[in-house]
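protien #1 (seq + structre)
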Amino acid sequence: MPIYEYTCQDCKRRVSLLWRSFADADSREAVCPRCGGKHLTRLISRVSVVRSEASRMDSLADPGDMSGLDENDPKSLARFMRKMASETGEDLGPEFEEVIGRLEAGEDPESIEESMPDLAGEGGGMGMGGDDFGVM
């Protein structure tokens, strides 16, 4: 059952209409539920795509997504880390946000690691593989 958004030209409000089928939406006249007006303009709605965890992880492993990554640029590392965090959908905590904020400010990753020793896992580093920030 599709939901379409419209702007009512009579009352100037944005309204959403639920249709029983796509054919119903094409064949029947849209009527504003607020004012009863029949002068509605259909809008392009925002699209949401539900993805599985496997699909999100696959997109992180895509080398094409790393084309803008410059391991020598802290701001580039921060953008990539934000993207990784967004794809996992998990809250990575205040320490992660602090590291990202410092990278976005241009701070060197090594100095961040030295000032935050609790972030390093066994054997040093951030425990992400590759260098300290997960860049291979």
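ok now protien #2
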Amino acid sequence: MSTTTSAHTSEQAPPPLFSLAYAMAVVAVHFYFVSYTMSLVEIPRALAGHPAWLVGLVVGSFGIAGMITRPLVGILVDGGKRQRWLRLGAIGTVLAFIGYALEFGPWTTMIFRALHGVAMGAFTTALLSIVGSRLPPARRGLGIGLYYSSSSVSGLYGAAMAVWLFEDFSLQLAFLVSAGAAVLAMIFGALTGPGSGEAAPLPPGQKRVRPPLFSPTGLLPAVVFLAMTTPWGAINAFLPLFAEERSLGNPGLFYTAVAVAQLTARALAGAISDRFGRASVVVPSLAAGVVGLMLLATAQSPVMLMVSALLVGLGLAGTQTAIVALIVDRTPPAALGSGMATFTMAWDVGQVIGSIGLGVVAGVTSYSFVFGLCAISPAIGMAVFLLRVWKAAPPAPPGASTPVEAR
């Protein structure tokens, strides 16, 4: 009787979502993405006057470095000392921005871009592992949604602030302000603590079992999210040219609409997934992505462009939030670093496939054809989710943070 009553009470009154550590993590991720968002306009500005292929190579070295090193970062984070890797990631980011400010030329900038890509992988993987390990299972989706909403807010002003700084003051000052934002991210991140489930030191003479390079609980969910990041990579590469080709107005408004949709959707998607299951968010989000990309491919007016942006934003935000919560549901706390690293690789791989791979297709067809082709990607992701991730849920791994549910 007492056990049943206790379980019922726990279900009715789940542990509080908000704590000092969680609040500090939300602030830390916001400041980190302020620095990242500022870099999106600072780097191309610093490379003005150089050939387009060289600008693309320098900008793309960020994603390539992250894609190559992220699995190793996950293993290192799981090896213990999450705070160490969080701080090293922030320090590496600060050094990268200082290197950008020195303006040694495109080839040296490419080295700092690669450092930035590796450092971002370390910081975001460590911080997300800490957050995921601390969230109460009953409110995990909501917690992750609010966490990502904080990072999305940076998109509303980070790039605009960078433009104001380098136009009214100097590019060097803009880079230094970005470095300062990364310092703030490190300070607030240090206040989150290590999180639960961190690997304990081994007794003398005992060796730790080497974990797999890719998380077994994160790999297929990451493939589902890749179905949205690949079209996003193509959008980032070709939308400005497509909008100019069809006279669709200011392409920057597309990204504003995406940011608004993401801010609206993340916390709501997380709460819905907590109440009705992760599939209740993943499937509609991927469906929104399909419709949004089809509208984008056929857009003939600014209104159609904005509607497609809202749908794509909803698709990205909902899929990301629910898939992260699902991975945390199914991953032992001590392996969350690997799980989060495997998941976030979908961003890097999607950028490479979407911009470089589909760039070849765009060269022999059209931007409209590429966006139409991208609409197939979320549909494939939906099939993978329903057939392999949701229906074929594995048994709960030993020490998992909460029982696995095929939901």
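The two ends are 29 Å apart (CA to CA).
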